[in-house]
Every structure is written in structure tokens, then in C-alpha cells.
Amino acid sequence: MVVALKRRPTPDAEAFEAVKAGLDQLPEGVKMLLNSGRFNDRPFKASSRQFVENARRCVDLVLEKLRGTKKIDHYEFGRILAGDSVEDNMRTLAALKAEGKFDHIGLSDCRAETVRRANAKRLFTYYPDQSEKQLRIRSVTIYVASGLNTVFIPSLTVKDNTITAVLEEVAKKNNISQAQARIAWVASRDPHVIPLPGSSHKIRTLENLAAGDIVLPAEDIAKIDKVVLAHSDENARRIDDPHSNDA
Question: How many angstroms separate the CA atoms of 3 and 201, rounded?
Fold first, then answer.
């Protein structure tokens, strides 16, 4: 995501080096999840019109670029599409899955109730962003993008930089980078919450991986919790509108 969203996108060679750095660090038998999407590319052309045709077009384009060297393990819409029910979204993806286009279906940026409705069809397997405590009921694994996303996104800053200041304080105290403090905080949320940090170069990839072994002291977690809750509305990320997803 970070690779394409920059004003000057990361060169392919540098991006591939960042990915390889992560692969080289994997223990034996461990697989890496690469999260990518055409909607992150430039120019941005997000649209919910004719989403069935667009979904098929995007999937076929990815498969064309992979040239048979790798399959799509998992596919999802970046958002639950407004104006169409959760069930309609899932039926569209299920049809593509049935054709062998990909192996698994996921959900992104939606409410716990949306997850429950999708799960009623026993279709999806992966859920990034916007974690909610209720998801523990079904032991759903939540991948949190960009380092911090439960109530705020690390790439965003509040007007008075209060969150950034606290993160910097915690980072200095523990002799880690601010990015590592963010990742460690996300990991502290729940065993089913997994940080999914972005990276555009090798050094950051290795730094992010090292954060997986960091456990923040309880007092530091509480300090971050307090300031995040106080500013959560300023950094709220749009999730699916409950009024636009009625069956």
C-alpha cells in the first residue's frame, strides 16, 4: 500500500527488495502474506458502479500479470460496496471463487455485524482493518493495516500531534522506533489481532519484523490507550454504512 500511495511511487526494484527482505527472514515452514490491490495504484479510480464486471476485470488482470507463476490465494473488495447488500457482495465473490479465480474470500473495513452476516454463508476467511471485540465470538483473525487501525491510523496525525507525541515518548523509553511502538501496540490488542504494517524499502521491512518480538510494558500500553481514545473521532476510518448494507 505504501509503495503505490506515495506521490512518487517506489521503483519496482526497491519494492521487490523490500519483499525479498521479508521472505529471507521467514523461519522454515512459515508463509508470508502479501497484501496488494489495484485500487492502491495511481490514478485512483474507485467506483461501485458495475461492480460485478469490475471485480471480474480486476481479478483477470491480476491473473494475467502473474502469468501462471503464482495464484491468487485470497481476494476481497477494499470496502463493502454501498448500495448493495453484504450478501450480494459475497455472492459476487463466491461466483469468482467457484470459477477457480482464487482460493479464499475476505472482508475489509466493515462492522462486526457485517462479518456475522457474511459468515452465515461460511464464505470468508480473512478480515483486515477495524477490529471489534465482538469478533472474538467466532475467533476471527483480524489483520490491522498500517500499524494502528483499531481506532486510528498511524499515517494520519491529529491537529495537535498528541498521539504522535505519546508514541515518540514510548518509543524513546523502550529504545525502539516510533513505527515499532505502533506495531507493538496493535499486537497488544488481542491474540486475534495481527499488525499488517506497510513497507516500501528493505530497512523498514526488517524494522517492522523486529517489532514482532517487542512487548510494551503495561503502563505504556495504558498511556497510548488513553490518548487514542481521546482522539479516536479525529482519526476515524470510514467503515461500511449500516444504512447502505441492508439485505
Answer: 9
Q: Look up the domain containing 197 and give its range.
A: 2-235
**β-bridge mates for residue 144, sequence order:** 195
Which residues sit opposite 72 in a β-bridge? 102
For the ranges 133-137, 144-148, 167-171, 210-214, the lowest mean pLDDT is seen at: 133-137
Q: Please check whether residue 87 is in contact with residue 116, taking contact to mean a CB–CB distance below 8 angstroms.
A: no
Calpha distance 76→93 (Å, rounded):
8
pLDDT digits (tens, 9 = 90+) for 148-158: 333 334 444 44
This prediction's pTM: 0.71
Domain total for the chain? 1
Round to the nearest angstrom and report the end-to-end CA distance of the chain. 31
CATH code of 45's domain: 3.20.20.100
